[in-house]
From TrEMBL:
Keywords per UniProt: Signal
Name listed for the protein in its UniProt record: Phosphate starvation-inducible protein PsiF
Lineage, uppermost ranks: Bacteria, Pseudomonadati, Pseudomonadota, Alphaproteobacteria, Sphingomonadales
Signal peptide region: 1-20
Amino acid sequence: MLFSFLAAASIAALPVVATAAPCKDAKGKFTKCPEKKVAPKRCKDAKGKFAKCGSPGAKPT
């Protein structure tokens, strides 16, 4: 009976462990994860080649 109680308790605690922060610092302690970097915007010219977004005729992809 004790075994079934421990098994049920471990299954109930599983979602709590799975939602823990996946990032750790140098000492191994859980920390807040850094913000993800946003990919730079890319633009293409009329011919379909990559161009600077400020240039005339360039459209974001």
